[in-house]
Amino acid sequence: MSSIRGRVLAGAIVTAGAVLAASGCAVYMLLRASLLGEFDAGLQLQARSLAAMVEAHIDGGRVRYHPEIPEDWQGMAYVLRGADGGIIVRSAPAVAAGLVPGAAVGVVGTLRLPDGAPARFATWTFAAAAEADEAVPGMPAPTIKVTTARAADGIELALSRLRWVLASVTAAACVVAGVVMGWILTRALAPLDQLAARIATLDDRSLGTRLPLPEQRELAPVIGRLNALLAGLDQAFAKEKSFNAAIAHELRTPLAGLLTTIEVCRSRERTPEEYREALAACQAMAGELRALIERLLLLAKLDAGLVAIS
User: Fold this and answer.
1) What b/e sequence results for 225-263 when a residue is b if at least 16 CB atoms lie within 10 Å of its CB, and e otherwise?
2) CB distance 93 to 77 below 8 Å
């Protein structure tokens, strides 16, 4: 037999868990997008700085690039290409990691650095720094395509901790919601427990008792119907008692006459004619008893629905 308290409690916990899980996923996605956005902005700043370290010289319509990358940048992963796609300079980590330009400008991808750390990389195109007097009429300004990568293990660790925290908070919130809902349901269903205890004290001797209307509106119809049922049972029992008394009276009269006739016959010797008269009287009284019993059986069959009323 299912429990209302259990079903409501389970539904509340599932609903709270679903809402908290959805909220946690939304928070996680927003924070992840924010962290990655800041990280990618740093990638773009790094690419812009690398592009600024390359000078372009135009000699006879040809562009020559002169990178001036400081030594402290050599440990980074980057590849710089000219407008013709040729490599201007690239770092050793970029070679080891197989860093290649993205399929499109601004596209961010993931890879593994030589030390195994996860990284994100992206490609941007910048105008190369060139002397104004070297410009050739009709020749487009030289550009540099920079592909650079940065280790993202810090972000991965932060996101992993965030997932753990959100999962823990969701689980703890579900437990707390279950405890609180259990307490609320116990308080809310206490009137039902009290009503059940009150009903358990009723018997056939207390059918005249009427239950007071509760303060809870939801229980008022139940109490009203129960009081109406008790009133109907009280009337039914009263009619049954009255009927039983009437039946007892109806049965006692012919039985008393029958016993009296038998006792008078046995009081002394009588003539055959007197015995015949006494037996005839007994037979008549027995017939009355038989007719009364048949009527009682018919009533019982009618109550049981065994006989159709035409």
Assistant:
1) ebeeebeeebeeeeeeeeeeeeeeeeeeebeebbeebee
2) yes
| Cβ atoms within 10 Å, residue 4 | 10
Where residue 138 falls (left for φ over 0; alpha for ψ -120 to 50; beta otherwise) is left
Residue with tokens 């055959």: 272
Strand 62-67 to strand 118-127: parallel, antiparallel, or no bridges (unpaired)? unpaired
> Comparing C-alpha atoms, which of 42, 41, 44, 121 is closest to residue 77?
121
Q: How far apart are CA 46 and CA 103, in angstroms?
A: 19
Q: What are phi and psi of 137, to 5 degrees?
A: -55, 135
Q: What is the pLDDT along the chain (310 residues), one digit of tens a residue?
A: 467 778 888 888 888 888 988 999 999 999 988 988 888 888 888 888 888 887 777 665 666 667 777 766 666 778 888 777 778 887 776 655 566 655 456 667 777 777 777 888 888 887 776 555 555 555 566 778 888 888 888 888 888 999 999 999 989 988 888 888 888 888 887 877 877 788 777 777 777 777 777 777 777 788 788 878 888 887 877 887 887 787 777 778 778 887 888 888 877 777 888 878 888 888 888 888 888 888 878 777 777 666 666 5
Beta carbons of 127 and 142 less than 8 angstroms apart: yes
Whose CA is closest to 134, among 69, 80, 55? 55
Give the Cα-Cα-Cα angle 218, 224, 230 (nearest 5 degrees). 140
| 145 CB neighbour count, 10 Å cutoff | 20
Q: How many CB atoms lie within 10 A of CB 77?
A: 24
CA–CA dist 243, 240 (Å, integer): 5
